[in-house]
Amino acid sequence: MTSAPSTKRRGADKGQVTSTEPPAKPQNLTQLDPNKIIVSPQRLRVLDMSAAEAIARSFELVGQLQPIRVSIDAQGIYHLDVGLHRLHAAKSLGWQVDTIVTAIENHSAHQRRLSEIFENIIRPDLRALERAVMLAELKALHEGMHPDARNGGDRRSADARAKRDQNEIFSFSSVAAERTGLSARAIEISVAIARNLSANIKARLTGTWLANHQAGLSLLAQQDAALQTAILDLLFAPVETRQAETVAEALALAQGKALLRPADIHWQALTNKMARASREQRLALFKMYEDEIVAFVKSKGLV
């Protein structure tokens, strides 16, 4: 693939000439027709066409700076490991794509899955739902490679099962936190989200605002399947009939509760604060509104 011409700029202070050429590419690159690279339908991250288009524009400006990685099987067929959006960018331009090729027997399915996860998991543009799915998959891979990460115990007891699940997640989170830079708690929350949302619910969430709202996803994941469906029905209803704007509001409606108006919420907060205030604080407040209080008492004929 031909990269864009290099340019030179002169340093502002010392008159140095600085190159803005792309970094040198590895020597083990192979240029392939992107249409001959197979993309597994089981990939964790869904193609975002707007991201692929943006990468294609960058290709036109500076060339392909980072190769994609593929595996070749015994039949000579190439399988994508990492670089889905770069692959589609090259395909949209009709370009050959720079690749690093690994023999598939030297790159197990386990390793290819790990490559995809670690390529994407700390990307700033990764949505909360995508990160949750990847972390849950990473947890499964971790437990496959480290069976001792699963703790035993009395599997007949619900309390014991819950404790075992917590221990498993904690064991995994400690390792994953080191590799991803995410906190162990953030990893636990994400794994719980992915584990407790069905494939159908995840599909409905893809591409929506809620897919990148971790607090909302966490609350949604805490509900049973029927409530999850009802919540999404309320949130994704047509604008003209929509009654809820947040997961919390949709949950309340799905449970048959009335939504509080802003004025009700403000009043509830005020009365809660008054209930917690000391006697001195309440007297100070009464003093501030003494004229209004006296007028109210007189209007009721109490004095």
Quick synopsis:
This protein has 303 residues and is α/β, with parallel strands linked by helices.
Which helices and strands, and how do they pair?
Elements: E1 8-10, E2 17-19, E3 30-32, E4 37-38, H1 49-62, E5 68-72, E6 78-82, H2 84-93, E7 97-103, H3 109-120, H4 128-145, H5 158-180, H6 184-196, H7 199-205, H8 214-221, H9 225-235, H10 247-254, H11 262-276, H12 279-288, H13 290-299
Parallel strand pairs: 4-6, 5-7
Antiparallel strand pairs: 1-2, 3-7, 5-6
Give the tags.
303 residues; alpha/beta; Conserved hypothetical protein from pyrococcus furiosus pfu- 392566-001, ParB domain; 13 helices; 52% helix; elongated; disordered N terminus
Q: Please compute the radius of gyration using only Cα atoms.
A: 28 Å
What characteristic shape results from the CA principal axes? elongated
Q: Ends: how far apart?
A: 92 Å
- Strand order in the largest sheet: 3-7-5-6-4
Query: What is the residue-averaged pLDDT?
Result: 76
Strand composition percent: 5-15%
Tally of helical segments:
13
Count of spatially separate domains: 4
Please trace the helix and strand order, writing H or E for each element: EEEEHEEHEHHHHHHHHHHH
Q: Which stretches are poorly predicted, pLDDT < 50 over at least 5 residues?
A: 1-27, 151-156, 160-170
Largest sheet, in brief, is: 5 strands, mixed
User: Based on helices, strands and strand pairing, what is the structural class?
Assistant: alpha/beta
